[in-house]
Amino acid sequence: MKTKVKRYLLDKYCTNGKLWKMLLWLRRVGLLGFLFPELKSLIDLDQGNKHHKEGDAWTHTILVIKNCPANPLLQISALYHDIGKSVCRSDDGKSVHFYGHEGESEKMVKELLKEMSYSEEFIEKVCRIIKNHMRPLGLQYFSDKIIRKIVRDVGVDLIEPYMQLVEADCKGKSTEEQNSSSKLIEFKNRIHKLLRLIELDHAI
């Protein structure tokens, strides 16, 4: 019954853009841990101040959901994109790190969505987006080879929603991180340039 209620809530609130509000309400009335126990690990999870002045991983996740378009693929990708952070957190005394959290998040979301009876196709798409969501912001420069590899790994079919999640992830961080938008704009322009070349190649 709990899994059915959870699926019902996601189906409803992922399409009306109010998923973030629903999650805040569940936490306020004490039901978040009952319906979404996997999200409890994000609450009070210190991310360090260097990249995440907005607060804990829970606050960041809410902001990313809020900044994503209202469709199930993006809302659920946003909801679970950092779910693996609690498993991967490390602190070297100078900075907090979450090395490999995207891979851990991918594994966790796959099982969670299976439990809620989402289709294999939908799960595979969510996993592809989450697995690759850190790649653009972790790069210092974008060579043609890197851009082609990202498009190949994400897939032409998912590149637009993927870029929307990456942008929402950036907006969900501190003001300093949002200022990396010039890097994001460059990334998007390079991706669109490659997609136009792919379209031309197919048209010939």
Describe the 3D structure:
By secondary structure, this protein is mainly alpha-helical. The chain has one domain (2-203). The protein is built from 12 helices and 2 strands, in the order H-H-H-H-H-H-E-E-H-H-H-H-H-H. The chain has helices at residues 2-13, 19-28, 32-35, 57-67, 72-80, 85-88, 101-115, 120-132, 144-154, 159-171, 175-178, 181-203; strands at 90-91, 96-97. Strands 1-2 form a two-stranded antiparallel sheet. Strand 1 and strand 2 (96-97) form a beta hairpin. The model has no long low-confidence stretch (mean pLDDT 85).
Care to count the β-strands? Answer: 2
> Which structural class best describes the helix and strand composition?
mainly alpha
What is the string of SSEs from the N terminus onward?
A: HHHHHHEEHHHHHH
* Major sheet description: 2 strands, antiparallel
Helix content: 55-70%
* Count of discrete alpha- or pi-helical segments spanning 4 or more residues: 12
* Average pLDDT metric: 85
Radius of gyration: 17 Å
